[in-house]
Amino acid sequence: MWQNGDSSHVLRIFDEEAQAMQSNSTALGETILSSIHGQMERLKSAHRKALDMLNTLGMPNFVLRLVERCA
Length: 71
What we know:
Elements: H1 4-56, H2 61-70
């Protein structure tokens, strides 16, 4: 069977692999959150531009409020 030194070596390898997987998961999570944040900022900008355009075209205030409420 395994000697005591062998089992501690195997446990150390498993621990190192678990730490590497956790690090990779954290990095992936950070990348996803950053991407979502960027998308949110672009949507906010597009929303502001659309409202500005409608305002420039002279849309009545109640129409602008409806658009805001739908958003």
